[in-house]
From TrEMBL, chain A:
Organism: Psychracetigena formicireducens
Pfam families the UniProt entry points to: Fer4 (PF00037)
Keywords tagged on the record: Iron, Iron-sulfur, Metal-binding
Gene name per UniProt: rsxB_6
GO molecular function, one term: iron-sulfur cluster binding
Residue span(s) of domain 4Fe-4S ferredoxin-type: 69-98
Protein name, entry field: Electron transport complex subunit RsxB
Length: 176, 362
């Protein structure tokens, strides 16, 4: 898979919202989706940045020939450990788990707002433009990065929304 | 008169690294910083940094400052470096005589080699109402918010979708403010798209091919008028839109801060790709004056990573010219030059590369 020099959509360069075509080459196969959690990197343009590569203990992010390369995941190697999620300065990595019996999925989102939500709390799940997509339950809140203290929050969401939901808002918080 | 070997002016990332590398190579350094603490722009950067993990990527700007300050203090205890804060360079006379203010008095010193790392100042934008209270430079808002803990408004319009505009918007959201929009005159987002996606999913609209027409209000900003612009950046009448904001943040670029060098007759070139008037310098950051070097945003607006690499390079070169170090230093110089090249290899550094070529051609 060659994701370098791939053309990105005008929509993305104008609004920051990727199209399906932008996303497609970065998604795992449907077979892989049924085999546990995976990291989804939504970083489409060449920028001088590589913490995703150095954060992965399993070398699942391919080594960069140049610092400006676009990150590419080898989904065979990705164990879904989630260690890369808080290390990305672009907050562009999400951990997704569609391998569940209840037809739902979880998404782990890097979250840098205070106060943090609590486990079990119901929050508003937001889409890529910040609109409410529905309610979601917080199933995990973890701060494991010693380097930068970014917290990761895992939400339980409908499986068909794994490419739609990208953020959330606590219910007692105002709209921004 | 006080005599020093290496004088570094400006304690931002470039100046801190320049001081460290000159000291480590064996030179004695004096560092002047006009603010009360070291760190420059970095003290207000609460977000995680981009770049290579070799140069602190993924670490927050403010934490990079703590690390570098620690290393500098170590050298200070060994008597290798003198760090003067609240010391502002104000004069640059003939030869290498300089004047600075410190504790209310003007002092002079003579330096064998001087590295200027004074950074840049923020640009303003002309539009009716830009003198109303509530119109700020983005960096000024960042200082108020992240250093002084004060939020100067509740509802913001951000002007400029470069990295600074996008990052400061994000930090405003983190501080609990709302950002009603980011306007950008160019047809596409200038900063990293990952930053744009981030604020977009928090509900902030990004208006490309838009500009601010006017700030309105009685005693302070009450609303902002924005408009669509054509491909020559001319406002298109009839497309105006009013946003009810109480603050406007301008992130429309930076100008290198080099007046003192200009006064001294050092050669400057006008290179828009590097931020405007920049001191001419060679690959080793030497200016038209053989004892004066520059690094960081002053040498061309870029980023903290390149500022640190340039600082490190200038410090090494200067120490080497003073006959410190040994053969290893040349390897280090080559390595840093290589890293700078790699960092600037991507499409986002196209302007910098073009600017560097213009600089070479004088
Ligand atoms: C909002 C924002 C976000 C940014 N995000 C990133 C990022 O994610 N990654 C990245 O790599 N870069 C980032 N940058 C850019 C980075 O902060 C700058 O490129 C970098 O700080 C430049 O370093 P410098 O040392 O050249 O200048 P500065 O940091 O500006 O330091 C210059 C210092 O010189 C001092 N000084 C000036 N004149 C005098 C004088 N006459 N006497 C004594 N002292 C003087 C100043 O007080 C200051 O401390 C960001 C910048 C901003 C504003
Ligand atoms: S989830 Fe774990 S294994 Fe997969 S890319 Fe991230 S760090 Fe590597
Ligand atoms: S760390 Fe994040 S922003 Fe940087 S290259 Fe990797 S995915 Fe992109």
């Amino acid at each position: 898979m060659d994701n370098q020099n791939r053309k990105i959509s005008r929509q993305l360069t104008k609004s920051g919202i990727p199209t399906k075509t932008d996303l497609k080459p970065f998604l795992p196969s449907s077979k892989r989706k049924r085999k546990g959690a995976y990291a989804l990197i939504e970083c489409f343009e060449e920028i001088p940045c590589d913490p995703c590569f150095s954060a992965c203990p399993f070398k699942s992010v391919k080594e960069f020939a140049n610092l400006n390369d676009i990150p590419v995941i080898d989904f065979k190697k990705c164990t879904g450990c989630g260690l890369c999620v808080p290390e990305c300065p672009g907050l562009a990595i999400f951990l997704i788990n569609e391998d569940r019996d209840d037809g739902k999925a979880t998404i782990t989102i890097p979250y840098e707002f205070l106060p943090l939500p609590e486990k079990g709390e119901q929050v508003w799940a937001l889409n890529r433009v910040g609109e409410i997509e529905g309610e979601a339950k917080v199933v995990e809140v973890k701060t494991y990065s010693k380097k930068n203290h970014t917290t990761v929050v895992t939400l339980l969401i409908p499986r068909e929304k794994v490419l739609t939901i990208r953020h959330f808002r606590r219910k007692d918080q105002n709209e921004r | 008169m006080e005599q020093v070997e290496v004088l570094v002016i400006g304690g931002g990332p470039a100046g801190m690294m320049a001081s460290l590398s000159a000291v480590k190579t064996g030179a004695r350094v004096t560092l002047l910083e006009r603010e009360a603490r070291l760190g420059g722009q970095l003290i207000k950067q609460t977000h995680k940094f981009f770049g290579s993990y070799k140069e602190y990527a993924g670490v927050r700007g403010i934490e990079i400052v703590d690390k570098l300050t620690f290393l500098l203090k170590e050298q200070e205890e060994k008597g290798k470096i003198r760090i003067l804060t609240e010391a502002e360079l104000v004069l640059f006379y003939q030869e290498q005589t300089l004047g600075y203010t410190y504790k209310g008095s003007l002092r002079t010193l003579k330096a064998q080699k001087i590295i200027f790392t004074t950074g840049a100042s923020e640009r303003m934008l002309p539009f009716p109402g830009n003198d109303l209270p509530g119109v700020y430079a983005a960096g000024a808002i960042q200082t108020l918010m992240n250093v002084n803990g004060v939020l100067p408004g509740e509802k913001y319009l951000m002007v400029g979708a470069g990295n600074i505009g996008l990052i400061v918007s994000y930090q405003l959201l983190q501080a609990g403010a709302s950002v009603l929009g980011v306007v950008e005159a160019m047809p596409r987002i200038g900063g990293y798209l990952v930053h744009a996606s981030k604020i977009r999913r928090m509900g902030v609209p990004i208006y490309t091919s838009h500009t601010i027409l006017e700030a309105r209000g009685k005693d302070k900003v009450e609303e902002a008028v924005i408009t669509v612009v054509d491909n020559k950046y001319k406002p298109i009448t009839g497309t105006e839109k009013i946003l009810k904001v109480d603050a406007i943040s301008l992130a429309v670029g930076l100008n290198p801060l080099g007046e003192l060098l200009e006064q001294r007759g050092i050669k400057f070139c006008f290179i828009p790709e590097l931020g405007g008037f920049v001191p001419w310098h060679d690959e080793n950051l030497k200016t038209s004056h053989p004892d004066v070097y520059v690094a960081g945003d002053l040498a061309g607006i870029e980023e903290a990573t390149t500022a640190m690499l340039q600082g490190e390079l200038a410090g090494l070169v200067v120490a080497k010219e003073l006959r410190y170090g040994n053969l290893e230093e040349q390897d280090k110089i080559n390595l840093i030059t290589q890293r700078l090249k790699e960092f600037r290899a991507g499409p986002k550094s196209e302007k910098t590369r073009e600017g560097q070529i213009k600089l070479k051609n004088g």
